[in-house]
Design goal:
heterodimer, A: mainly alpha, two-stranded antiparallel ribbon, 6 helices, 2 strands, elongated, B: 119 residues, mainly alpha
């Protein structure tokens, strides 16, 4: 059972940081929606407030780690240019996709959208974390601010969802390969 | 049980914790402007060859490195300026919130290649 370092980085970027962000984002939406609505029953405790502060900071960290590993670690391998005369494009995912009309759209629409839209997520969620850090339970008294923060968190989820969907589909059709091989376990003799 | 140990803040504490909303408005609008700036920069770089080359800050990543770095710097700069000007003020939040959300949704739409290619 072997992996290459590029496959491991792709996994860390997509299923690690990106996947965790997508899973956790829903929790922030539910908490902001339920507990911080002006008409929400009962006061917000200090523990609730502290929990959401830590949660949003962790979300922001995941979003930044996802876009930074994607942009500076995985994307260069994806867009690498093959030497002239190369016929086997399997190590050059962008070129592999562009080589066939049936798959070119995954780059022209999928990657072209993903590479930019993904960056909206960390900007939006960092803002949400910063606002919540400052106001905490005071957001209940600022419904317009709380609703806007909620809207930004929704858009960050949507942006990360678009990036995650296209990332998974593109990696399925033209996976990032290469690098050193890491052997996880030996098969049976 | 003293106030510090009580998990539920008293009304007096909550009133004391009330802060001007200017800092929140600054963060919100800056995020909207930064997001919109990212989408506009991406379109410009796609259209202008010279700009495309100028945006290559890290060659393996290409122009995306410059577009995202500049957009993040715009976002942080706008945030710092607005924070400095608004942090002690109470702002009418409705308009700021609407403008910020419109900018964010526009950014989302303008990064979509079929729409970006219209320009």
């Amino acid at each position: 059972m072997e992996w290459t370092t590029r496959e491991i980085w792709t996994l860390i970027h997509g299923m690690g940081f990106g996947g965790l962000f997508l899973l956790a984002c829903g929790g922030a939406i539910v908490d902001l929606w339920r507990r911080y609505a002006p008409a929400a029953p009962g006061p917000v405790t200090r523990g609730d407030e502290r929990f959401l502060r830590v949660y949003l900071v962790a979300l922001a960290a995941l979003a930044w780690l996802a876009v930074l590993t994607g942009t500076y670690k995985v994307y260069p391998w994806y867009r690498a240019t093959p030497p002239a005369g190369t016929t086997d494009l399997s190590a050059y995912p962008q070129q592999l996709l562009m080589a066939k009309p049936a798959t070119a759209g995954w780059h022209l629409l999928g990657m072209e959208w993903k590479e930019h839209v993904a960056w909206l997520a960390p900007i939006a969620i960092t803002m949400a974390a910063a606002v919540f850090f400052r106001y905490g339970r005071g957001l209940k008294k600022e419904p317009a601010l709380r609703n806007a923060v909620l809207g930004f968190v929704w858009v960050s989820l949507l942006a990360a969802g678009v990036a995650g969907f296209f990332g998974a589909e593109i990696d399925d059709r033209a996976p990032v390969k290469g690098g050193a091989t890491v052997r996880l376990m030996h098969g049976g003799e | 049980m003293n106030a510090q140990n009580n998990p539920i803040p008293t009304i007096a504490e909550q009133n004391r914790e009330a802060k001007p909303n200017g800092g929140g408005a600054a963060a919100l609008l800056a995020a909207g402007i930064g997001s919109f700036g990212l989408a506009v920069l991406a379109i410009l770089v796609d259209q202008v060859g010279a700009l495309k080359n100028a945006m290559i800050f890290f060659r393996p990543t290409g122009p995306l490195s410059g577009v995202t770095t500049i957009a993040v710097l715009i976002w942080l700069a706008v945030w710092a300026i607005l924070e400095w000007r608004w942090r002690k003020k109470t702002i009418r939040m409705g308009g700021i919130a609407a403008a910020s959300l419109v900018l964010l949704v526009l950014a989302l739409l303008l990064t979509f290649p079929p729409l970006a290619d219209l320009f």
